[in-house]
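Q: My labmate handed me this sequence with no annotations at all. I'd like to see what the chain might look like in three dimensions before we decide whether it's worth expressing. Could you predict it?
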Amino acid sequence: MATPSVRISDGGSGASLVPRLELAREFRADPLGRHSAELARLVSRLRAGAVADKFCLICTKPHAQWVIAQMSGHRGVPPRIADNRVFTSIRDAEWAVFKLRWLQVYGVAIDEDAL
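A: Here is what I predict for the chain of 115 residues:
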């Protein structure tokens, strides 16, 4: 049985529909692969919007090491490191950014125990 989406308040500007956890499970299983149409729409939504404070990855060693940063939103101002974790797997790094963007956009963390 599919988990329904949950409607939460987004601070007074209306309601925001939180996607089903199956989409998070799908992304975690294959963050770099082809995604279902529904997950592709979700990923596009997480990547859209204002640039300021959006989470991103910075590769610190080519093909070997990544850190999480947040974009400044201002041309010429580089992203700032936002997390002290260093990832040696791009899959793990992408999953970490996905969770942060989900929290940023929907205001609720992904319950990994429910995945």
